[in-house]
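in:
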């Protein structure tokens, strides 16, 4: 009886092949994980142009670091860390001056008026997230918007789960305060 292969197993095999110099394996990893990396970078930096730069730099860093990747975590967790660190470095180099803009998706069966209200509410929350302190914004993006577990976020940020929970609590309180203050 053979065990089913998971996406994590496939990523591990691709990472091993890429580390051995197989460019097609690395290309597959890039295609598979770039959308997630871009979302994270965009939500942290607040700028599509900066997010694209962060993702490009993250992939360059990943390519260079791949031979040293010890597979102590999943490939996707490692890539979250690489892109998060890159986005944080980008913020340190240049503070964002443009709030995060992301259009709300069309929802089937709703009126145009409801879609406008929904889009405004989503935009207000995303703008509020972009105004959070980076120490609050990053864990909130990874946990609530990317859906990572507490353990995964703690590993990416290299903090303990109790410290992460504390950061997330402060982030949620600050976010709620900002949304309530909205004009």
């Amino acid at each position: 009886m053979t065990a089913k292969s998971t996406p994590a197993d496939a990523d591990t095999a691709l990472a091993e092949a890429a580390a051995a110099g197989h460019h097609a394996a690395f290309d597959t990893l890039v295609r598979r994980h770039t959308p997630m990396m871009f979302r994270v970078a965009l939500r942290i930096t607040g700028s599509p142009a900066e997010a694209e730069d962060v993702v490009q730099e993250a992939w360059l860093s990943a390519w260079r670091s791949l031979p040293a990747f010890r597979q102590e975590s999943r490939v996707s967790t490692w890539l979250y860390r690489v892109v998060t660190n890159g986005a944080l470095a980008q913020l340190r180099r240049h503070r964002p001056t443009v709030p995060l803009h992301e259009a709300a998706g069309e929802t089937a069966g709703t009126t145009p008026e409801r879609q406008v209200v929904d889009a405004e509410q989503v935009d207000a929350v995303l703008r509020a997230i972009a105004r959070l302190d980076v120490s609050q914004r990053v864990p909130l993006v990874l946990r609530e918007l990317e859906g990572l577990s507490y353990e995964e976020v703690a590993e990416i940020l290299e903090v303990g789960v109790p410290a992460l929970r504390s950061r997330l609590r402060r982030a949620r309180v600050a976010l709620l305060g900002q949304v309530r203050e909205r004009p």
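note: Residues 92 and 143 are 22 Å apart (CA to CA).
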